[in-house]
Write a structure and sequence with these properties.
The chain is α/β, with parallel strands linked by helices and 338 residues long. It has 2 domains: 2-62, no CATH class; 69-337, Metallo-dependent phosphatases (Purple Acid Phosphatase, chain A, domain 2). The chain is 31% helix and 20% strand. The chain contains 7 helices and 12 strands. The protein has helices at 2-31, 36-62, 104-116, 140-143, 169-185, 225-228, 246-255, and strands at residues 69-77, 88-92, 121-124, 152-154, 189-190, 194-200, 203-209, 237-241, 260-263, 288-293, 306-311, 329-337. Strands 1-12-2-3-4-5 form a 6-stranded mixed β-sheet, with helices on one face. A 6-stranded mixed β-sheet has the order 6-7-8-9-11-10. Helix 1 packs antiparallel against helix 2. The chain is globular and about 80 Å long.
């Protein structure tokens, strides 16, 4: 029923988005009725604008959410241990896998594409489901298929705490625990304010994973950065998995020395055109790579003190399968010693 209501609301919104430019240009044409030629031009402009909007939404609903893109990043830092030169990390985020119900072939394609990149490590930065752990049941065996030399590491996103489900608190806790058990059963290393250390001889790479840390009002705030870094060697190169990118400026930059954070959450609003997305109205860091030079260094050329945030636009969709421009994304990060 919720899905039907969501589709009805979306159809109404799409019709309005098509009708608004058509109506506007026809209104201008009416104002220019004393100049028939200009009136005709504006009427056609209205029809053209409406047609373009209709085609964008038609493509997004039929093909856009299946158009899986691989976006590579070469990440360089002086402190990356020598043994991890060329180390490849694949980041996935925001599966919202219930939206893909009935389309196991799409999930299988994602698994095959990831495995085809021959990753050393796969990380998942939260929001496996929309509203219930049961959404994952249909795809459990497919999700077992991810292969990486050092396994799969995951954290929870805001949806994984089931805040949008109309259930009792007791049922919510049970469902969260069930989802956690499912991820562990997949063979994933679920980090709940914990860390996962990858070793290559004497060199180590520390994957630090925190629980969701949003604004505390609209999204839950459970991260404990100190606990997540407990017992880590000072020589470990740290990579933080934190679902919400706003965590970066709120806590990660001021309170830690972590050089690289991987996040998701924004989806780039599942719409991007010529580099613009409605996400810009909400998030300062909403998609792609953001580099920050620690002001304590006083020199932007010192890569040793460079802090970097990479925000994935996600691999799935919330509620309704639609994407345009902000295609479903597999992030491929290759580490290099500078």
């Amino acid at each position: 029923m919720r899905m039907i209501i969501a589709y009805v609301i979306l159809v109404v919104l799409v019709v309005l988005l098509i009708a608004l430019p058509v109506g506007f240009f026809h209104f201008v044409a009416w104002l220019l009725k004393a100049w028939p030629l200009w009136g005709t031009v504006f009427k056609w402009l209205g029809f053209a604008a409406g047609t373009i909007i209709a085609l964008v939404f038609a493509y997004g609903f039929t093909f856009g959410w299946r158009k899986i893109a691989v976006h590579p990043y070469d990440y360089k830092h002086t402190y990356i241990p020598a043994a991890f030169e060329g180390y490849k990390i694949i980041q996935l985020s925001d599966f919202h896998i219930g939206t893909l119900s009935g389309h196991p072939e799409v999930v299988q394609e994602i698994v095959d594409k990831v495995n085809g990149l021959n990753p050393d490590l796969i990380v998942f930065t939260g929001d496996l489901v929309n509203m219930s752990s049961s959404e994952q049941d249909e795809f459990h065996e497919i999700l077992r298929g991810f292969r990486a030399k050092d396994g799969v590491v995951s954290v929870l996103g805001n949806h994984d705490y089931m805040p949008y489900a109309r259930i009792s608190d007791r049922e919510r806790v049970a469902d969260i625990q069930r989802l956690q058990a499912q991820e562990l059963d997949l063979g994933w290393h679920l980090l709940m304010n914990e860390n996962y250390v990858v070793r290559r001889g004497e060199d180590t790479l520390a994957i630090v994973g925190v629980e969701n840390d949003g604004d505390g009002k609209h999204f839950p705030q459970y991260a404990d950065l100190q606990k997540a870094q407990a017992d880590l060697s000072d020589n470990s190169f740290k990579i933080l998995l934190s679902h919400d990118p706003t965590h970066w400026h709120r806590s990660v930059i001021p309170d830690t020395d972590i050089p690289l954070q991987l996040s998701g959450h924004t989806h780039a609003m599942q719409f991007k055109l010529f580099g613009w997305s409605p996400s810009k109205w909400i998030y300062s860091q909403w998609y792609g790579r953001y580099d920050y030079d620690d002001p304590t260094t006083g020199a932007s050329t010192k890569i040793d003190h460079r802090r970097t945030l990479i925000v994935s636009s996600g691999i799935g969709e919330v509620g309704i399968p639609f994407r345009f421009g902000a295609w479903p994304e597999i992030v491929e990060i290759t580490l290099h010693r500078r």
